[in-house]
């Protein structure tokens, strides 16, 4: 049932206090929920709870929703990212009751006596209004997955592992049931689930890194060695990533993993046959969905203009493949920024720039700024080598700076698509 005018006011009045105490909410909520329901450890990324990223994302979306409660229909597109992520992880309607109970209790602890029965009633309604919107959209996505006979986790075998660079390997995944795999849109990801070191299941998302093939899916994974920079926020950033290292070290060809149906709202819409220029902007391992997009376009729309602007600190993954695409497709252009060029690297030949990625250095014609319809796909991974690796400048910030640059050149927001290789609350930022 909709909130009354008085109830929307009660909700809005508490938002500043809840925002101010975001960290406390986050820690109370997750600690209590996982203590009460330890089985939920199987769904959550244990590191994103420790670093508070996921609970912060959830709380911030709920507060963002509540602030915009008078025009919720405009918010619906902003929920695509989380609904796709939820479905990729197997989140079910019954989970919403648990989250709602512990989240509202955490709000109550933070607000103290200000959480009067009318305020609690108003917040409960607001939560369920949002939850029902998400559950509804997730039901549609699950229905699509079921039509393709893949409603939940499916067993795959790692058929081959192929190095693409020193620390990025491609894993070729073949379904154990050998049934043909459904189409996906280039840019989408799958979740891969394995048993983590603490005995709980751990899932991570990996973009599909090739154009569609019926017999296998390819994902390309970077070994996450942890931060190597002394100015990182906390010592724990030095911990090597759990799942990527396990996949590299303990999952050779022949091993089994569980995989969920392709999902994700960051994709090239291949159904509309658009011929507008495409500008792909990526950094580090963010190359993976761009390879899928570029391969698909080159195979199906060879006349379409594509510029690929990529930044890398180490070797550029898929370098030979990208060079091959460039040589054989006059409509495919690349601009590669590489920092820390070694003596053996050839600036101006192999790489275009020895700088951190800076769109201001790219020629306007390579950014296709004069074409009113150009689509821009931006992806930065969690640890972009091209931005300041400091406490305040994360990948979201860097992405926003790039989108600001493009907007300042006259590109309208709907033509920009973002992906982030991490959990975040982009919904109310981008
Ligand atoms: C849509 C999407 C697509 C993706 N596609 C790809 C892809 O194609 N290829 C790819 O390689 N990756 C991709 N990723 C990222 C991938 O899902 C994983 O996040 C990545 O592999 C790291 O997982 P991990 O388990 O190895 O690291 P985690 O264990 O999750 O650790 C992540 C980082 O957190 C740090 N850390 C550890 N403990 C703490 C702590 N207590 N506090 C703070 N920091 C800590 C670690 O040092 C590490 O650097 C994608 C992510 C998303 C969301
Ligand atoms: C109204 C309720 C909810 C909101 C607003 C919400 C919001 C979010 C957001 C913003 C993200 C991050 C998306 C991204 O950037 O990738 C997320 C991820 C996630 N959510 Fe929810 N969520 C809700 C309910 C639930 C429920 C009921 C569960 C199940 C118990 C759940 C489990 C997860 C998990 C496991 C992730 C991925 C976490 C990670 O990878 O670290 N969420 N959610």
TrEMBL record:
EC numbers, comma separated: 1.14.12.17
Keyword Cell cycle: no
Record domain Globin: where: 2-139
Reactions that this protein is recorded to catalyse: 2 nitric oxide + NADPH + 2 O2 = 2 nitrate + NADP(+) + H(+); 2 nitric oxide + NADH + 2 O2 = 2 nitrate + NAD(+) + H(+)
GO terms under biological process: cellular response to nitrosative stress; nitric oxide catabolic process; response to toxic substance
Domain of life: Eukaryota
Record family assignment: In the C-terminal section; belongs to the flavoprotein pyridine nucleotide cytochrome reductase family.
Name this protein carries in UniProt: nitric oxide dioxygenase
Cofactor(s) annotated in UniProt: heme b; FAD
Keywords: Detoxification, FAD, Flavoprotein, Heme, Iron, Metal-binding, NAD, NADP, Oxidoreductase
Enzyme class at the top of the EC tree: oxidoreductase
Span of domain FAD-binding FR-type: 151-269
GO molecular-function terms, A-Z: FAD binding; heme binding; metal ion binding; nitric oxide dioxygenase NAD(P)H activity; oxygen binding
């Amino acid at each position: 049932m909709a909130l009354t005018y008085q109830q929307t006011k009660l909700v809005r009045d508490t938002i500043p206090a809840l925002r101010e105490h975001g960290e406390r909410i986050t820690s109370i909520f997750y600690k209590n929920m996982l203590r009460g329901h330890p089985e939920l450890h199987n769904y959550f990324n244990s590191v994103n709870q420790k670093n508070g990223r996921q609970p912060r994302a959830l709380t911030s979306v709920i507060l963002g929703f509540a602030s915009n409660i008078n025009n919720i229909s405009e918010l619906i597109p902003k929920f695509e990212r989380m609904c796709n992520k939820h479905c990729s992880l197997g989140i079910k309607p019954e989970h919403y009751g648990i989250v709602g109970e512990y989240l509202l209790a955490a709000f109550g602890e933070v607000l103290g006596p200000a959480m009067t029965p009318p305020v609690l009633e108003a917040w409960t309604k607001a939560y369920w209004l949002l939850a029902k919107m998400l559950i509804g959209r997730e039901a549609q996505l699950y229905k699509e997955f079921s039509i393709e006979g893949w409603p939940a986790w499916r067993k795959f075998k790692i058929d081959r592992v192929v190095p693409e660079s020193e620390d990025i390997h491609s894993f070729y995944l073949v379904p154990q049931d050998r049934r043909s795999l459904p189409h996906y849109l280039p840019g989408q990801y799958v979740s891969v689930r394995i048993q983590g070191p603490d005995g709980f299941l751990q899932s991570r998302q990996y973009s599909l890194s090739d154009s569609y093939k019926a017999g296998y899916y390819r994902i390309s994974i970077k070994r996450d060695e942890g931060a190597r920079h002394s100015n990182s926020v906390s010592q724990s950033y030095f911990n090597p990533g759990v799942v990527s290292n396990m996949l590299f070290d303990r999952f050779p060809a022949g091993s089994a993993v569980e995989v969920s149906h392709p999902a994700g709202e960051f994709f090239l819409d291949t159904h509309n046959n658009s011929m507008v220029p495409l500008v792909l902007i990526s950094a580090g391992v963010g190359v993976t969905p761009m390879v899928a997009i570029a391969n698909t376009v080159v195979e199906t729309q060879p006349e379409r203009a594509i510029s690929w602007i990529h930044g890398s600190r180490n070797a550029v993954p898929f370098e030979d493949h990208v060079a091959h695409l460039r040589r054989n497709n006059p409509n495919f252009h690349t601009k590669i920024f590489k920092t820390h060029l070694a003596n053996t690297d050839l600036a101006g030949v192999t790489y275009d720039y020895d700088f951190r990625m800076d769109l201001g250095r790219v020629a306007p014609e390579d950014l296709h700024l004069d074409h009113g319809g150009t689509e821009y796909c931006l992806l930065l991974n969690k640890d972009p080598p091209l931005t300041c690796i400091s406490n305040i400048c994360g990948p979201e910030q860097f992405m926003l700076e790039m989108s600001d640059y493009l907007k300042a050149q006259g590109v309208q927001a709907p033509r920009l698509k973002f992906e982030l290789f991490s959990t975040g609350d982009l919904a109310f930022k981008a």
